[in-house]
Amino acid sequence: MKSDEITDDGLIRINKFIAEAGICSRRQADLLIANGRVMLNGQKITELGIKINPYIDIIEIDHKRLTTKNQHFIYLILNKPRGVLTTVRDPFNRPTVMDLVNIPARVYPVGRLDQDSEGLLLFTNDGKLANRLIHPRHKIKKLYNVRVTGHPSESAIAHLTTGINIDGRMTLPCTIHKLAQDTHSTKFEIEIREGRKRQIRHMFQAIGHEVITLRRIQIGPIKLAGLPLGKWRYLTEHEVKAIQKETGIRLDAR
Fold first, then answer.
1. Identified catalytic residue from 9, 62, 114, 252
2. By the number of CB atoms within 10 A of the CB, which of 15, 62, 78, 101 ranks highest?
3. Which residues contact 61 (CB under 8 A, 6 or more apart)?
4. From the centroid of its chain, how far is CA 95?
5. Measured over all CA atoms, what is the biggest interatomic distance in the chain, rounded to whole angstroms?
6. Phi, psi (rounded to 5 degrees) for 21
């Protein structure tokens, strides 16, 4: 294999992926691309030499999705600690979630948890399922425990639940339940159905309360319960079927 065919992050040239799927040779794949018959993540491409992530990106020819031969999908869950980056690698050699998930196969985190947050993070090499979990169109439930400074008023919380403007765009309606409070802080359970960058932190900042701790405890039907901090496990067969059903993926079409 030539050195420019694959990078440290597992990227390969799209013509190689098409050839490995048994469609045609690499040269013929380049012709398919040049003729506008290839789509990358729903967008038609004509540029040659593009590199893709074969586990996450979705490649279609004439609107038919491709997979490499003998592709085996893997699904697992990690209880991410604070201080760990949700990225495949970091140029400053800071700890990443990949340091905690040590399996021989290549899997990738689905979405993100910021460095100061902890909790449930899914990994897979199933690009179709990953995209459906991430895309806001599918409105997959995400459940968090959050502790904030002070004691937000009922009216302020009600304002958050109906949606607020963040960076020129309204958040979707959400549900928030008060769990407990002490002298200086309040704990809530919050359910959102989108995943904008640092969304919950920005939401509470907008009503004058800073997030102290943030922990994701559920994505769709998958729950964190019982998994120690910093540990991971494979999803059970029941969990895989449940999350495929949640995202609308037909099991008989895989």
1. 114
2. 78
3. 18, 23, 32, 37, 38, 39
4. 19
5. 68
6. -80, -5
Label residue 237 exposed, middle or buried (CB < 10 Å: 0-12, 13-18, 19+): exposed
Backbone phi and psi for residue 9, each to the nearest 5 degrees, phi listed first: -90, 10
- Condensed to tens digits (0 to 9), the pLDDT of residues 115-157 reads 999 999 999 988 888 888 988 788 899 999 999 999 999 999 9
Geometric angle at alpha carbon 68, from 66 and 71, rounded to 5°: 115
Question: Using alpha carbons only, what angle is made at residue 76 by residues 74 and 82, rounded to the nearest 5 degrees?
Answer: 140
Residue 3 in tokens: 């050195």
In the residue annotation, 57 being an active-site residue is answered as no
Rounded Cα gap, residues 211 and 51, in angstroms: 38
Write down the pTM of the prediction: 0.73
Cβ atoms within 10 A of the Cβ of 182, count? 9
